[in-house]
Model the fold of this input.
Amino acid sequence: MLGDPWRGGNPYGFAAAVARDGRAEFPHAFAERLESADLPLAHVPAGLGGTLTGLDDTLQRVRVAARRDAAVMPATLLSCAAVATVLAAGTPGQARAVADWVHAGRTVAFALSEEHAGSDVLANTCRLEEAPGGGFTLTGSKWLVGRGATAHAALVVARTAPRGPAAFTAVLLGPRELSRVRRAAAHPVTGMRGIDFADLVFDGTPVPADAVVGAVGGGLAAAMRAQQLVRLLSTAACLATADTALRTALRFTRSRKAAGAAVAAAAHTERDIALAGAELLAADVLSLTAARYAQLSPGTFGLCSHVVKRVATRLTASSIARSRGLLGARGFLADGPGSVVDKAQRDNAVVESIDTSPLGVLRAVAAQLPAYAEPPQDAWTAPRDVRALCAYGEPLPALDHTALDLAARPRDRVLLGFAEHAATVAARLEECGAPRAAELVREVRAALAATVAAAADARRDRARAAGPEPLDLADSGCLLYAAAAAALAWWAHPGRGLYGERPDGAGWLSAVLAVLLAHADGRDPRRVPAGDLAPAAEAVTRLDADPQLFTALPVRLSDAPGPA
Done:
């Protein structure tokens, strides 16, 4: 539908995206084209007129559009956070209202953050107070609200009690209420230019009693539950920008020669392509697994939602940096391939801090990791159910927003499933003639056990708990979690090769596990043996030539062939 993105005159192509970015222009025509294909409804359940069937399918559809210009995500899908909050805690009437607004092409903003509080939402001061004649009034301001200057409605989380997480209430402001709110000028931003991030200022704004979403005092919990899905879907932008950067680098290195030889054939080029590819594949396989996880077991998805956000942002940022390095001097020129990768890199950086900050993510993981040192005896480890997490493309049950849970019980399906079945996965790899991949799976199992044990020890030691160690262990734990998900994904597809490999091929898995282990251990991934890395370069080169999206699910692209 969108045509070849490399064609200069394509309004949905890379050159057009770079030009819009230079003018800080909202992607109006592109957004309208996507609206005609119902992309804004991809997160809305079918029962409310949406097109959501599986979050893995939604993730892929968004990636296909956002790789051309990541700004189309907030341009078309920004209502996701508000809608998810209403579906998690609101009334059927409120759910119908937000779905109808999205169906009509309207945007529902999500207003939680405040400038003075930063990532500490418990320090927020915007107040919701009872009005003498009934209903409420809002006083204060919300900071960096996506589409804040242009949204038609907004979900606002404001303080209703002096202290604690139960001191906040969510209210849904429709077009009439929002018309009484002052909207400050949009802040200039470095990435996703053209999207307005503006402040909403309330000065005794009237709010009707029936605007409360859920119970009074339950607003922050409802918003945090919904953020689990938002963190997941935000990875589509990370993956999309990394896809664009790597694809641009692949085409550039194939078109250039140095000392009479193709740049693509140089050993250091092959290594950097392999590293960028392995990092992208690792983020891809975890995101797809997380998308299925959210629908199969929303009540235990909390830890995974933080891990996938951390891994996807960190690994795709690294992948894009490597891709930019492959362009040489053209990587900093304001036209040509450098401009495409530069925009991808800046857009990617925005995703790291929206919805949940990197520090907030690591704190959440650090709080939960120690509990896995001694998992409960009744832990869920059924092989069939573990494999279902990674059965990409298979039907999923309807997403139950109300089942999303903030409890930090040690019930994560990936960690517990991998701990139970790692030996079986390694044995299966041996049978398939992949002893190196089997060895790496065992290394991941040992590293995960050591990391979790260290996290538990650090929690018991007051001095260690107050230092940086718990967050460092959380960071390593996230990367090892991704490695566990990759191993389970290979196991879940007997007889089917992922990323274009032969049936039971495990080359991509060896590359992903080796790179993740290096990152988790603080080692330079460039020291990973060439034999481990090579399959990742082969995989992304093969997928680009086909051409397909850099993903475990076959997704055909409309790109014209690049240079041979």
User: Anything to note?
Assistant: The chain has a mean pLDDT of 95. The beta strands are 108-111, 127-130, 136-146, 153-159, 168-173, 182-183, 197-207, 212-213, 257-258, 261-262. The two ends are 25 Å apart (CA to CA).
